[in-house]
Write a structure and sequence with these properties.
Chain lengths: 190, 190
DNA sequence: CAGATCATGTAACTGGTTACATGATTCA
DNA sequence: TGAATCATGTAACCAGTTACATGATCTG
């Protein structure tokens, strides 16, 4: 899947500028693209050309004009068709596992340092993804996937499930690396 | 990380032709590239140019010559340096989660069909990845990450951990989708 | 005054995918 | 005889990343 459907989905939820989208991508765990300008602005042009989104240019006095995009009826239809399409398996690229395959050449201390560093990083992500399960501060504009911004109870269930999936992913990874460190340290001393 | 280190690692383990590599990539769960020719043959040329692998051309009577590659001393040094490098977080692309974010427009039955199909696919992967934890048939050439092919006990521990990571990944995913289906069906009927 | 924020975009590159191309051999 | 396997490669394309480019405004 390309970033286009993610953008189309967001624009079906509320109207947003390229800059808004960029921030949403940067903040969200679930939207795993970097949110770089190139891709977002090109995707918006493309969606526009295909008639899936509309633009409204809002001139501002002192800042560059905001181009605010929203999904059109055709865009919503296209999105609905896509959501019904056959699910793909998630793809996971896990460079550390390839590193570990050949890491037997490393001294035990260095290997454990590597794993400890990894554990730290994963723990950070686990905390962040668990935090997203908590509702945002009252008064704040609901962020993407915050059940408070959902339009129906079922949508809230789905959004919570998405966040739980990410939390489970990092939780499982954290448990794995901790178990591996224990196993390596006990094997060494036995 | 590019596919190059994965190839260099395999060639540090045993000597292989491009065709052998292709098959290993296709068979292995852990080596998540498609194993397409383009990338493998280009990577081999590149590694060769950088002096990290050597080639031996083995002419065959009736088939095209095999070009058998192996890691050189420099290649092994480069690989060792890479294994010691800072670990990266795994990256996961999960299109279904983006689909679900906007799936509230689907009728309940269609949504459950989608999730059921996903559950099936994940279950297949879960079974495959658990199966790789079993030793290969006696007499068969040890496959990549089969502890039987490991060169030291610690390497066997690492290889098992890698396979367990994949099994845990699919196991966690399977539990998640099952729980979600239950939640959606009970919410509907209450 | 420096750094973050608002707001738009472009250029160059990397990594990876799909499909094309060739041709003999082996097996059901 | 048709499909799978052995064995090499090339061409065209797509998605995504990093870095470049501009410039005003707001905040500490």
């Amino acid at each position: 899947m390309s970033i286009e459907y993610a953008i189309l989905g967001l624009l079906s939820w509320r109207e947003l500028s390229g800059y808004d989208l960029k921030k949403i991508f940067e903040e969200s765990v679930a939207l795993y693209w970097t949110g770089n300008n190139n891709e977002i602005y090109r995707a918006l042009v493309d969606l526009r050309e295909r008639g899936l989104v509309s633009v409204e240019v809002q001139p501002q006095e002192k800042l560059p004009a905001r181009k605010v995009y929203a999904a059109t009826a055709e865009g919503r239809a296209e999105l609905a068709a896509w959501t019904a399409s056959a699910p793909q398996l998630p793809q996971r690229r896990h460079a550390l596992l390839i590193q570990l395959a050949w890491a037997d050449a490393l001294p035990a201390g260095q290997l454990d340092n590597l794993l400890a560093e990894y554990e730290d990083e994963v723990q950070t992500q686990a905390i962040i993804s668990r935090a997203q399960l908590q509702p945002a501060a009252a008064g704040a504009r609901a962020r993407f996937l915050d059940p408070a911004g959902a339009r129906t109870p079922r949508e809230a269930v789905l959004w919570r499930a998405i966040l739980e999936n990410w939390a489970a992913f990092y939780g499982s990874e954290l448990a794995w690396v901790r178990a591996l460190r224990v196993e390596l340290s006990t094997a060494r001393s036995s």
